[in-house]
Each structure stands twice: as C-alpha cells, then as structure tokens.
Design goal:
single chain; 480 residues; mainly alpha; disordered N terminus
Length: 480
C-alpha cells in the first residue's frame, strides 16, 4: 500500500512532462556516475599518456592556458610508480610552459626535476635535453658551467649535435668573459663547420663571434656581424640581444645618438617581455585549477552518493532533483585593462628623430619597412587567426582575446615601423601610427573596431584625420 500511495502521490505532484524530465535527469545522473567511475578503472599510466597527448595537441594550437591547467592536474596526481620517462615528460612540459611565460623561478623547479628523472631514464637522450633546458634558467656562472659541460658531453654521446653545439656556444662565451680568448676561438671554430646547416646555431654563433670581437675591442667587426642579423627573423629575446649589443657598441665608439635610438628600440621589446612576466594570467589559471579541484571533488562525492541511493531512495532523489539549481559557469576575463595597450603605445613614442634624409627617400624606407614587416607577420599563426576573424561582420561575434593576441603580434612586429612613421610625420599620434599598422596588416573595420574599442564611425573619423597628416602617396600605400 505504501508503494502504491507513493506512486499516486508522485503522479499527482508532477505532470507527464515533468516525469519525462525527471527520467532524463536520472539517466543523465547515471551516465555521469559511469563517467566518474570509468577513469578509475584505467591504469594511471594510460591516463597520464592520454592527458599528455591532449596537452601536446593544445601546444600545436597555441592554447597555453588550457595546456597549463591540464599539466597542473597531471602533476598534482602524479603517481611515484610511473616510469621515469613519463615523469620526465611531465616535468619538462611544465618547465617549458613557465619558461615561455618568463617565469624562470617556477621553470627552474620543474626543470630540476626533469634532470633528476632524466638520470633515471635508460635513454640518456632525455637527460641531454633536460640539462640544456635547466641551463636556460640558471644564473650562477659556476653551476651553469658545470651543467653546460655535462650537457655537451651527454648530447655528444647520444648524437644530438644541435644541443651539443648550443652548449659549446655558451661555454665559449664564458671562456671569452674569463679573457681566455684562445679557448673561446677554438670552441667557436669547432662549431662553425655545422652552423650553416642549423638556423638557431647560425644565429647564436654570430652573436658569439660578435661578443668575442667586442671583448677584443674589434668594434667594426662586431657591428658588421650584428647588423647582418635581420631583426624580423629573430625572436623577442633575439631582438633584445641584438639591440643590447648595438647600443653598447655605439656607446663604445662615442656614437651616442645612434645608441639612444637602439636604446629606445630595446625598451620596446623589454617592455613586451615585462608585460608577459607581470601578467597575472598564470596565477589565475593556477588558482582556478585549485578551486576547480575542490569543486570537482565535492561534485564527485555528491554524484556518487546520489548514484548509490538512486534505486533505494527514489523519492529522496526526486525531491533532490526538483530543488536542484543549475550551476552557472563563470566566464574568464577576455580583455585586459586598456592601460597595458596604452603602455605599449607610449613606448612606441620614445624615438628621438630620424637621420636627416630627403623626405621622399624616407617615405620609401618607411614603406619598405612596413612591407617587410607585413610579409613576416603573414608567416605567424596570428595572421591565420586574423583571416578567420575577418570573415565575421558582427563585432559582437569576434573573440576579444584572439584580437588582443593578434594586436600584440602586430605591435611586436611593426614597432620600429610605427616609430619611424611617427618621426616622419610628427602630426601623427602613436595611436594613429598603430591604426595605420593594423590596417596595413589586414584588419577589417569590424576587427579594428574591437582592437581599438571604438565604433566604426570613430575609426572612420580617425582615418579622415590621418589622411590630412600623411602625404597622398603614403596614405594610398597604407590604406589603398
């Protein structure tokens, strides 16, 4: 009688439509319970391999934030019984992520672990890579010399010529700093034979030769070597090294005006690195991960408890489902404060002035620099993203975070060109120069509106003002 009374009470309380919804919720709950229990049946090693594969796929798509969250979860649940090869891969990946974000202290923590795991591996190839990665985040010269010497020897044994040569380059530089120029030249000569077959070794060996020439006070040779390195082909760190060397060379030769120009360019790239370093995005991911773990553990406990009671206490489950509230997902902030963009724009305005040249020649020089920067920008992954966004005609549908990433790439690529354009046409503001750069780079009016956080009408008026400040030829070149 109790059973029939309960069924009658339920049928009177809920409509047929409500009963269908409750059945769907019970099925969903059962499926969720299975999803929670099935991973526990998998071996820990298979689970880690699957997560590492997913993280590797995210690296190919430049999704570092999601990749970091996955790797933090793997590291937090790392089983000591895992093979040293898997533990090496986890530690190396986390070290690499933090290194690319210029957080060297955290990178050092994980890369030191990677070296320890590499010593346990049967294949010393992993140890050679781990030693090189660790050397990138060590500052103490004595420790660094020891690490690099072992790195050179291990990579020679496993046949990794690329890392062996990179270790030799740093050892040669240390020898030069100790004023042992004979040893530095000998190491350089052992590298140069294979340098042309490796782009990175070629660049680093040129920097090494320039450093040796500087120590020998052969400034013309050092200047020629550094000027022979095209800045658009260098990474952000490579550009800092290039402009640092040129600034010191100009100071050593008493060419203070040129040294100041190089100092301004150097400040732009250093500020770009500082913005990455000071970004709180990594901390948000770490804090969000910790909060998610706590939340997921609570949800898992509730789901398992409800799943066990489904068949025994149906009325209690229905009561729970009737009052269950839908969880609201939190949205991450997609746009940083406008001050970061203003900081970059203000740094672009720190140039002193152009060398005295005919205006027509300077226009050609600036136009050529714009053209070369655009060609290089089109090789970057951000340009492919820009082409996809350009297909959208509704500004509300455009991903603000993607636009910010593209804008950062344009600023990093066109910084020198924007500075020269502002110097050539003093009436231009730095925001005007940046607007010229993004239009020349291929932004549509919708994407440009999102990038500048301005309406299309405001950008149209800006374009009209720019037209009055530029010569007809230069305006046609940029906006034609």
């Amino acid at each position: 009688m109790k059973k029939h009374y309960l069924c009658d009470h339920i049928s009177q309380t809920f409509t047929p439509n409500d009963m269908n919804k409750i059945q769907q919720l019970i099925l969903l709950l059962t499926a969720t319970l299975l999803c929670l229990l099935l991973p526990a049946c998998m071996s820990n090693e298979d689970k880690v391999r699957g997560q590492l594969k997913k993280a590797s796929e995210l690296k190919a798509s430049d999704s570092d934030n999601e990749r970091l969250a996955i790797m933090l979860e793997i590291d937090d649940n790392l089983d000591p019984a895992l093979s040293p090869e898997l533990k090496w891969e986890v530690a190396s990946t986390l070290g690499d992520i933090y290194y690319t974000k210029y957080q060297y202290r955290k990178a050092h923590k994980y890369l030191t672990r990677a070296v320890d795991y590499g010593r346990e591996c049967d294949d010393k190839h992993n140890l050679g890579i781990a030693l090189w990665n660790l050397a990138l985040v060590v500052n103490d010269t004595d420790s660094l010399t020891q690490i690099l010497s072992e790195c050179r020897d291990v990579n020679r044994l496993v046949g990794n010529l690329h890392i062996e040569n990179r270790a030799r380059i740093h050892l040669s530089r240390f020898a030069a700093l100790r004023n042992d120029l004979v040893q530095a030249r000998l190491i350089y000569d052992s590298i140069i034979a294979s340098a042309h077959n490796d782009k990175f070794i070629d660049v680093e060996s040129k920097i090494l030769l320039a450093d040796i020439s500087i120590i020998e006070k052969n400034y013309p040779e050092a200047t020629a070597i550094i000027n022979g390195m095209a800045p658009e082909r260098l990474s952000l760190d490579g550009k800092v090294i290039r402009y640092t060397r040129l600034m010191h060379l100009m100071k050593s030769q008493g060419k203070y005006e040129q040294a100041l120009l190089y100092s301004d360019s150097l400040a732009i790239y250093r500020d770009s690195i500082n913005l990455i370093t000071l970004s709180d995005q990594t901390s948000r991911i770490e804090n969000g991960y910790a909060a998610r773990i706590v939340r997921e553990q609570g949800q898992r406990t509730i789901a398992i408890a409800i799943g066990i009671c489904v068949t025994l206490l149906l009325s209690a489950i229905i009561f729970f489902l009737a009052r269950q509230r839908k969880l609201k997902s939190r949205q991450l902030s997609l746009v940083k404060k406008i001050s970061s963009l203003n900081l970059k724009l203000s740094e672009l305005a720190t140039g002193n002035g152009l060398h005295e040249q005919p205006v027509a020649e300077m226009e050609k020089s600036v136009a050529e620099k714009f053209r070369l920067n655009r060609e290089f920008f089109r090789t970057l992954p951000q340009y492919s993203t820009l082409r996809q966004l350009n297909l959208l005609r509704n500004s509300d549908e455009i991903d603000r975070q993607k636009v910010k990433d593209i804008l950062d790439a344009v600023i990093g690529q066109f910084a020198d060109a924007c500075t020269n354009l502002s110097q050539l046409f003093p009436a231009l503001t730095m925001e005007d120069s940046l607007y010229c750069a993004i239009i020349y780079a291929g932004f549509t009016k919708e994407v440009a509106s999102v990038a500048f956080k301005a309406s299309e009408e405001a950008l149209r008026r800006r374009k009209s003002r720019i037209k009055q400040k530029l010569t007809p030829g230069m305006f046609e070149f940029i906006f034609g």
